[in-house]
């Protein structure tokens, strides 16, 4: 296949397991990027799984062996893969392999560039093998949202399996013509640990996938969620998995209950750990579980809470940048990050000057931070305003999509 001229728009194939209407995790970014490229005249085609995340079951109306649809100017082919429940160990691996097999035997056409989204890293590695074998003239771009092997190590899943996955991840990244990462720290880690030249790594920051928040009646919203006017609501949203270490939040809820603090913890979302967490939290008063919300209700919850919480398992430091932070900053509410003080999440909250950082797995420190913000509403408001400013200046969607598009033009016209 001949390379296109600089004045023409490239045809791009995106292979990623998650895609809208999934509304959390990686899907909103893959969807928004594909739509944004299409708006810029770049023909984006997507191969994705049927929507199944974060509840790990295929959504109603989906589940056919294959399905083609057009979503906001993007041609999307859905392929049926094995959906694990619970999504752990060998089942999770089998899920990625099954998507990898389905996506690699699908028709790819004649793309000018191929973008694989990691995770899912195993299926991305399988797609990369096909790209290098059958589409040699099409540059391969690996878009890294999480660091896979590092994530296994940081969540206590080390050993031979983690080592083997590290080898696969390294080969995948080194095989790419360009690696796109969502944070400067990712770029440093990939260059250092996997030997990828820094000139082949492009940083494109994630952004909030929520539309600008409408005017929200906070009092009515709090009443709808069952939150009292005089209690401090601490809201955690998104996936409930091992990485989030949400047992710490349950412990903190027990602590505030013991001291009779006017604090309520709210966990919004779903995930592989939810059932275990609900069982663990039975009888804990100041703790509320809320199922996943649509965008409007999610925005209302963020704006109506007093504090937005990022909680990570002790030991998690460099495997990921929590996507929820972009929406938290958009909500103009103070953030508490219960995480490794030297990790990426802590660094992001400090860079935005948007809240407080406390050590992971320390419920007493989490309580102290909450009470500090409750006692200093002016400081809390400044943190919220700083977060919104950071979102608007650093985490802007149009800036990110333009940078990604420029990178595609660069690699397809050389």
From TrEMBL:
Keywords: Glycosyltransferase, Transferase. It holds the Pfam family Glyco_trans_4_4. Residues 220-387 form the Glycosyl transferase family domain. Residues 24-207 form the Glycosyltransferase subfamily 4-like N-terminal domain. It comes from the Bacteria. InterPro entries: Glyco_trans_1, Glyco_trans_4-like_N. This is Glycosyltransferase. The lineage of its organism: Bacteria, Bacillati, Actinomycetota, Actinomycetes, Micrococcales.
């Amino acid at each position: 296949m001949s390379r296109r001229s600089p004045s023409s728009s490239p045809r791009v194939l995106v292979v990623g397991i998650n895609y809208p209407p999934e509304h959390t995790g990686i899907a909103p970014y893959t969807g928004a990027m594909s739509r944004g490229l299409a708006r810029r005249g770049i023909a984006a085609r997507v191969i994705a799984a049927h929507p199944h995340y974060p509840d790990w079951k295929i959504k109603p109306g989906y589940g056919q062996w294959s399905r083609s649809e057009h979503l906001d100017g993007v041609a999307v082919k859905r392929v049926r893969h094995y959906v694990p429940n619970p999504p752990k160990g060998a089942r999770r691996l089998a899920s990625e392999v099954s998507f990898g097999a389905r996506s690699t035997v699908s028709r790819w056409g004649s793309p000018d560039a191929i973008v694989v989204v990691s995770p899912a890293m195993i299926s991305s590695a399988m797609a990369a093998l096909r790209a290098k074998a059958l589409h040699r003239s099409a540059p391969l771009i690996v878009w890294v949202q999480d660091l896979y092997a590092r994530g296994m190590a940081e969540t206590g899943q080390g050993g031979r399996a983690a080592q083997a996955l590290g080898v696969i991840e390294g080969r995948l990244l080194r095989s790419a013509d360009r690696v796109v990462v969502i944070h400067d720290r990712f770029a440093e880690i990939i260059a250092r640990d996997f030997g990828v030249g820094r000139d082949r790594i492009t940083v494109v920051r994630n952004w909030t996938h929520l539309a600008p928040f409408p005017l929200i009646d906070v009092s009515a919203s709090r009443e709808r969620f069952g939150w009292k006017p005089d209690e401090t609501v601490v809201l955690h949203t998104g996936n409930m998995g091992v990485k989030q270490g949400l047992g710490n939040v349950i412990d903190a809820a027990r602590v505030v209950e013991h001291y009779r603090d006017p604090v309520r913890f709210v966990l919004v979302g779903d995930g592989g750990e939810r059932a275990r967490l609900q069982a663990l939290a039975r009888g804990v008063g100041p703790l509320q579980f809320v199922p996943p919300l649509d965008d409007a209700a999610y925005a209302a919850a963020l704006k109506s809470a007093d504090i937005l919480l990022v909680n990570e398992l002790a030991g998690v430091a460099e495997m990921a940048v929590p996507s929820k932070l972009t929406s938290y900053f958009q909500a103009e509410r103070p953030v508490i990050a219960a995480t490794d003080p030297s990790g990426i999440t802590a660094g992001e909250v400090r860079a935005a000057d948007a809240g407080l950082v406390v050590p992971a797995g320390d419920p007493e420190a989490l309580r102290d931070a909450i009470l500090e913000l409750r006692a200093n509403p002016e400081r809390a408001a400044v943190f919220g305003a700083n977060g919104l400013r950071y979102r608007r200046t650093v985490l802007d969607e149009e800036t990110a999509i333009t940078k990604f598009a420029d990178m595609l033009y660069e690699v397809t016209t050389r």
